[in-house]
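User: I'm curious whether this sequence folds into something compact or stays loose and floppy. Could you predict its structure so I can see for myself?
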Amino acid sequence: MAHLAPRPPGSISSPQGLSCTESQMKRFFERHVPHLPQRMFEIVADLEDYPRFIPNCKAMHVRPDHRAGEAKVVLAKMTLFFGPITQSYTSRVTIDPVAMTIRAKAVDGPFAYLDSVWSFEPEGQGTRVRFEIDFKISNMFIAAVAEPAFAAKQEEIMRAFCEEADRRFG
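Assistant: Here's the prediction. I'll summarize afterward.
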């Protein structure tokens, strides 16, 4: 289920129902899945496996972020494709198994900024999975077309993680 961010003053709604201003695209998704929180956390934290099941993910290269100290922080370079267009960007990803969160912040690529958070909470016999993403594409001409399309893809990504959990755990 997608939840839209409150519309700021001066914002407009796109045909997809997204709340957007000239400078940002925020999306919030949550879904109950019949799998344990730890299992869902492990699937999302398994960054190197993304190209196998995430739509439009062509490649993922992960390396340690040596500036992170004790925290589990990696630099993940994801390559996406949309038709004939291929684009890569790198995120600093913080994986926190105690808080059951995975946070990503783009450090290069086409984004002026991209921040996302996955969280996993026990709910009944499964998990409440939440995914928040806030981003802006730097080039305003590309952003006019790409931001709504990229935002719309996030629902597919949430669905892909849930389907991967079903595939792995039944």
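Summary: The chain is about 25% helix and 45% strand. The longest helix spans residues 140-169.
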